[in-house]
Amino acid sequence: MIGLFAVACGGGGPGTPAPTPGDAPMRDEEPLDSTEDEGGEAVPYALPEVWGHAALADRNPDPDVVEVELTAAPMRVRLAEGLEFDMYAYNGQVPGPLIQAKVGDRVIVHFRNELSEPTTVHWHGLRIPDDMDGSPRVQAPVPPGETFVYDFVVPDAGSFWYHPHVRSNEQVEKGLQGPLVVHDPADPEFDAERYLVLDDILVSRDGLVPFLERHPEIVHGRSGNLLLNNGRAEQLSVQVRQGSVERWRVVNTANARTMQLSVTGAVLQVVGTDGGRLATPYRADRLTVPVGQRYDLEIRYTDTGTVSLNSHVLTQNEQREVVELSIPVFEAEVREDAAPPRSIVWPQMPAIDPGTPSQTVTYRLGARQGGPNGLEWTINGEAHPEAPLFSFAQGERVRMVIVNEAGPEHPFHLHGQFFSLAGRPELGLKDTVLVPGLETVEVDAFLDNPGRWMVHCHILEHAELGMMSEIVVEPKPADEG
Ligand code: C2O
Ligand code: CU
Ligand code: CU
């Protein structure tokens, strides 16, 4: 088992040095024609296999349409030998099955709710129409026993995930979460692709600990005492060949815990973030991954031995001092191989240009006394306000200043759009950014997707206790193109 540990008091992990990206020169966009061979004939693109998850069967013969069935239902889930809990599952799996497509595909999901409570499915990170986004402000939640058809085109390649947006602190913790990959046919081939869905849950011998009953859970969010990697509470391991190169996609699906990750024994480069590939990959020794965020890593097995992905968690020792544990959640045994190391060539892509923001808006993340739990979390002084906070015009570039006025950290998440960190566009497009306690973070948002979009803290307890609001992006009039 990889982690029944005492729950440390307090929020996230220790500070992490900022990654050091290389220079991000402006690059000219090069048209890609890699789907054609020399004779000019189209080579059919086969989606790469993604290790770690059963992919949902595509029922639609059209190569550009992915049509799948997804059902949420209660289930007894086995997380390790002798460790079973009453949870929720999509298609009988925790995490839910892998949904994969290639960029530009139409995805149709026939969803059925077999829970005894309403739910929706939110496609975290996808820039799709707002009535397909699973926001209960736009889509009436699916009642028990009923169905809904999600139907959208996936405009961006990248690593995404899906989860409910109704009572999310309970439904996600109980197991409703799954990986979604949008592949880019122009990407290089790897020796393996893996999607590592990292979670933690709070359990006792009797099952999941009751929700929102403890003060620390209301203040800091629900920190688990059991780490899960792809739904297993035990270390996963594989055998690999020296010289091989893999792509790992990593997502943090926990309710609250910011994951501190390191990889030992291999060369790691960050090649992608929430919004897809980076123009300039960078090396990192440690990654801070707040809930909701994704990282794509290129892992190069240069030496033989054991490579491990470690999750660093704070806990208390017997003297009640806070200490850091390094828990391996995934291991690769590297076998010697004389073959020359693989080289991976990424097609060039242009650097992100955030442009000049047309306006600056401020979100103040705070708290106040009140509500059924005694504490409410607020954005600009309001908990779950009905009216949107801001209204923008489609295509606007907006500087968003996020001020954390309370002690706990808040991973700030915007639906339906991407942003880059102000002054650091080379770190990539993101939909979630960590705002540490009492600090301010600025982002440049690309508001290209019209609709009503949720903005909220991705600590699900904070979101459900008020730190959830909405912005509006008004569609551009048709005559302006
Ligand atoms: Cu993971 Cu409102 O999102
Ligand atoms: Cu989201
Ligand atoms: Cu928060």
Number of strands: 32
Largest sheet: 7 strands, mixed
Average pLDDT over all residues: 91
Report the principal-axis shape. Answer: globular
Which regions have little confidence, pLDDT < 50, spanning 5+ residues?
Answer: 4-38
How much of the sequence lies in strands comes to 35-45%
Q: Determine the number of helices (DSSP H or I, runs of at least 4 residues).
A: 3
Description:
- The chain has 481 residues and is mainly beta.
- It is 3% helix and 44% strand.
- The chain has helices at residues 168-171, 215-220, 460-464; strands at residues 50-51, 65-80, 83-90, 99-102, 106-113, 122-124, 147-153, 158-163, 178-183, 192-201, 203-204, 207-208, 226-229, 236-241, 245-252, 259-264, 267-273, 276-283, 286-289, 294-300, 305-316, 322-335, 359-369, 375-379, 390-393, 396-404, 410-414, 418-421, 432-435, 440-447, 451-457, 468-474.
- The strands form seven sheets. Strands 1, 10, 13, 15, 17, 18 and 20 form a seven-stranded mixed sheet that branches. Strands 14-22-21-16-19 form a five-stranded mixed sheet, with no helix packed on it. Strands 24-23-26-30-28 form a five-stranded mixed sheet, with no helix packed on it.
- The radius of gyration is 22 Å and the shape is globular.
- The termini are far apart.
- 46% of the residues are buried.
- Residues 4-38 have low confidence and may be disordered.
- The structure holds CU-O-CU linkage and copper (II) ion (2 copies).
- CU-O-CU linkage (C2O) binds at residues 122, 124, 163, 165, 292, 413, 415, 454, 456, 458.
- One copper (II) ion binds at residues 122, 124, 413, 415.
